[in-house]
């Protein structure tokens, strides 16, 4: 582990910006539905979206619908459920779905696991499940083993541990893959990527960004593949504000030359 990772440099070039949400753009809360994005933070994200000419996407464990609700009235390109679903810059949605007939028995088996670990809570995300245990005293190892045992007969499923959550999602998808897909498309294509995240599920995206010579930024403590670190959500916005100011200053000249914003740009 390298806790001495540097703070990322203040950039002013045309990057593709990718962000995890919970623990990165918004402070973690006891329950995911308690997480909010204050208007001031939304305004800064809207400014970044405009200043980057829409080369900005959120890649989260949340569903697309959930991400839209959290960030309303903004509208971003999105990677949801750890990359299992994606909405591109034009609003086209693609998703890896679970095999028909798997969801009902899986739900029942996970509900049985919840009963064995009092206080845990099952969230259904359509194409994935999340077992939350924030604030619950239990053996994390025992819970993960129980879920591992449960999904062993299903090669279509993968287990994704996170901060006080164990998720069961479709196998063969990752945040890194979602990020790579975005980079094949305009306006992301050809720009070095930047990704910020705080949790284990973000490591695949850090790996992808490192391979492409971009900026990988870990938020908070912990072992990571990322090359830079910001200590928390407040520091993320402090850094972003300085970067947005630089991009806007650079764009002042560009707008004179007729650069226009893309379909998702919006002022708050
Ligand atoms: Mg996170």
From TrEMBL:
Cofactor(s) annotated in UniProt: Mg(2+)
Keywords of the record: Hydrolase, Magnesium, Metal-binding
Top-level taxonomic group: Bacteria
Natural source organism: Shimwellia blattae (strain ATCC 29907 / DSM 4481 / JCM 1650 / NBRC 105725 / CDC 9005-74)
UniProt similarity note: Belongs to the trehalose phosphatase family.
Pathways involved: Glycan biosynthesis; trehalose biosynthesis
Function according to Swiss-Prot or TrEMBL: Removes the phosphate from trehalose 6-phosphate to produce free trehalose.
GO function term, MF aspect, one: trehalose-phosphatase activity
Catalytic activity entry: alpha,alpha-trehalose 6-phosphate + H2O = alpha,alpha-trehalose + phosphate
Enzyme class: hydrolase
Signal peptide range in chain numbering: none
A Pfam family the protein falls into: Trehalose_PPase
Name of this chain's protein: Trehalose 6-phosphate phosphatase
InterPro entries reported for this sequence: HAD-like_sf, HAD-SF_hydro_IIB, HAD_sf, OTSB-like, Trehalose_PPase
EC number of the protein: 3.1.3.12
Record GO biological process: trehalose biosynthetic process
């Amino acid at each position: 582990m390298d806790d001495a990772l540097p703070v990322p440099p203040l950039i002013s070039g045309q990057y593709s910006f990718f962000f995890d949400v919970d623990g990165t753009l918004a402070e973690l809360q006891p329950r995911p539905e308690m997480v909010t994005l204050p208007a001031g933070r939304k305004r800064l994200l809207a400014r970044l979206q405009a200043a980057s000419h829409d080369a900005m996407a959120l890649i989260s464990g949340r569903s697309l619908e959930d991400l839209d609700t959290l960030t309303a009235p903004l509208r971003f390109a999105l990677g949801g459920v750890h990359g299992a679903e994606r909405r591109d810059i034009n609003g086209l949605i693609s998703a890896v779905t679970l095999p028909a007939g798997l969801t009902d028995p899986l739900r029942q088996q996970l509900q049985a696991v919840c009963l064995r670990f009092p206080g845990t809570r099952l969230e259904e995300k359509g194409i994935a499940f999340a077992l939350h245990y924030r604030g619950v005293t239990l053996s994390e190892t025992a819970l993960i083993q129980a879920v591992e045992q449960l999904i062993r007969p299903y090669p279509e499923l993968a287990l994704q541990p996170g901060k006080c959550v164990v998720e069961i999602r479709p196998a063969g998808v990752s945040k890194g893959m979602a990020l790579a897909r975005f980079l094949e498309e305009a306006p992301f294509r050809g720009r070095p990527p930047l990704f910020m995240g705080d949790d284990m599920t973000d490591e695949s995206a850090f790996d992808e960004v490192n391979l492409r010579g971009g900026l990988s930024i870990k938020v908070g403590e912990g072992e990571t593949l990322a090359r830079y670190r910001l200590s928390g959500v407040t520091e993320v916005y402090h850094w972003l504000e300085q970067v947005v100011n630089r991009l806007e200053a650079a764009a002042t000249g560009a707008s004179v030359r007729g650069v226009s914003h893309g379909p998702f740009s919006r002022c708050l």
